[in-house]
Design brief:
The protein is an alpha/beta fold and 497 residues long. 29% of the residues lie in helices and 28% in strands.
């Protein structure tokens, strides 16, 4: 794979340059290479060749990033489990991929009880560098687990060919070219797919990566890094800007070159405000689901000249190199320009399918002949239309998925866990907008009021923090629309007032 060759080359050629700034400590590419070599030796001596899927505890340290590279150079895949998520959820993920091995840089690992753990922070230094293991494009590079409507996360395997296609598409973007002198923000958890574009392109370019410690207030730490370290490349979710709004009048980061948004709706008003803070930056509104290897296309936002929007939501632009967009109706027939339908994606970045879930795969993927060539498409669940210029405009979701802090959340999963906890079925989870303009989760229950502290404690056993409801509403009955369905719009109005 081309990107693996270039990644190994970058580690060698940029030895004396800064690779990471983690928790106020700088690490060079030489430091990173030394960790990679130690972990590779640990993998070779402790994990059989045939074991390809390896759990990775996603701490914010050099060993964790080195573990990703080490696994790839050994022809293996990482399956990230976030240490701040419930242990039961993480064990379920590791069980789903049937792995016996976990890489963990923690001082002591809670996974030692259940799995064979390689303590990456305790491995001995080695001066020996082994040749990399050759990989096939169909070999898995990582598996990310996203929220699932059945109460269990669903796995999305991404192979080396998918990653190669992503890197090739990014390299083809003339407007966005990283340099060795760039200082790049990495604000994402490694269990979130946008982390891949925050660490991989900078590493390939020999640039420096600045991470966010898990115990810090994310938006405030980003603000501090921007100002004190003069970051030049920002990859962010739009929700962060909502929290930075009180500081916008203080920010004048003229040194920022690029700012890429993704993982949520970019609103016209917030884009305009933010562009004034980074007046010399090129701003990109990227679009792409986990199932299509992070990015699939973008809209180059420019204040006063390129501000296409629908209902205040900035457009998602055009597909990038090697990607095909179509908008279809319920029968998967392509609709005309200007007509709203479901956006579907095809190209080399598409996943082979959800992990061991043939039923879901049959619903989410289909084949269609385009210009005489049969292509495999992924149904995104996003409603869009294409305008006369060929730009795609985002309208909304087709299903009950929402974006919380960039994470894609199935409301059905929250409902499933809540029903088990409350032993009742008449409840609804829904998203609402808080005072900062960001999405949160509310739980509406047909019941007399109950102890929400106990309910939250039980939910935290099974769900990550971003999926925990922040508001609870207890009603005698649901409001209904004229056609008999639960009136979610009215429920949101009650919650937000």
């Amino acid at each position: 794979m081309k990107f693996i060759v270039n990644l190994e080359k970058s580690l060698q050629e940029n030895a004396f340059l800064k690779a990471f700034h983690i928790n106020n400590v700088d690490y060079t590419y030489a430091n990173l290479s030394a960790e990679v070599n130690k972990i590779r030796l640990g993998i070779r001596t402790k994990i059989p060749v045939e074991n390809k899927l390896i759990g990775l505890v996603t701490n914010d340290d050099l060993q964790t990033y080195a573990s990703i590279i080490a696994l790839w150079l050994e022809g293996k895949a990482y399956v990230p489990v976030n240490p701040i998520y419930p242990i039961e959820r993480n064990l379920g993920i590791l069980e789903a991929v049937e792995t016996s091995y976990v890489l963990d840089s923690s001082e002591s690992s809670v996974y030692s009880i259940y799995h064979k753990v390689i303590h990456t922070s305790k491995l001995k230094k080695t001066g020996k560098k082994e040749p990399r293991v050759e990989v096939d494009k169909n070999d898995i590079a990582y598996i990310l687990f996203t929220s699932g409507s059945t109460g269990k996360p669903k796995g999305v395997p991404i192979n080396f060919g998918n990653l190669d296609a992503l890197v090739d598409a990014l390299d083809a973007e003339e407007e966005f070219q990283l340099e060795k002198t760039d200082k790049c923000l990495q604000m994402f958890e490694l269990s979130f797919d946008f982390s891949v574009v925050a660490y991989l392109p900078p590493l390939l370019a020999g640039a420096a990566i600045f991470t966010i410690p898990k115990d810090q207030i994310k938006y405030f730490y980003i603000y501090k890094l921007m100002v004190t370290k003069k970051l030049t490349v920002l990859t962010m979710v739009p929700s962060i800007i909502h929290y930075l709004r009180p500081y916008i009048h203080e920010i004048s980061a003229q040194w920022v070159k690029y700012c890429s948004f993704g993982g949520g709706k970019l609103m016209k008003d917030i884009a305009a405000e933010w562009s004034s803070c980074i007046p010399n930056a090129k701003i990109f509104n990227y679009y792409g689901p986990t199932e299509f290897t992070v990015y699939s296309g973008y809209y180059p936002y420019k204040y006063n000249t390129q501000t296409k929007n629908h209902n205040g939501i900035i457009g998602i632009g055009k597909p990038q190199k090697g990607v095909t967009y179509i908008v279809v109706d319920e029968e998967n027939k392509i609709v005309e320009s200007g007509v709203t339908g479901e956006l579907c994606l095809a190209g080399e970045q598409i996943t082979e399918g959800y992990w061991k879930n043939s039923k879901l795969n049959s619903k989410a993927f289909f084949n269609k002949k385009i210009n005489g060539e049969t292509k495999r498409f992924y149904k995104t669940g996003d409603l869009c239309f294409v305008d006369d210029d060929g730009d795609y405009m985002y309208v909304g979701r087709l299903d009950f998925q929402v974006k919380i802090g960039g994470y894609r959340v199935e409301l059905g999963e929250i409902e499933c866990i809540a029903k088990e906890t409350l032993t009742r079925t008449d409840l609804v989870a829904l998203d609402f907008t808080n005072k900062y303009g960001n999405k949160e989760i509310a739980l509406v229950v047909i019941s007399d009021p109950v102890d929400t502290d106990g309910l939250v404690a039980n939910l935290k056993v099974a769900l990550p923090t971003y999926m925990i409801p922040t508001k609870f509403l207890f009603l005698k009955e649901f409001p209904h629309s004229v056609n008999g369905k639960i009136d979610r719009k009215e429920l949101r109005r009650i919650i937000e007032k």
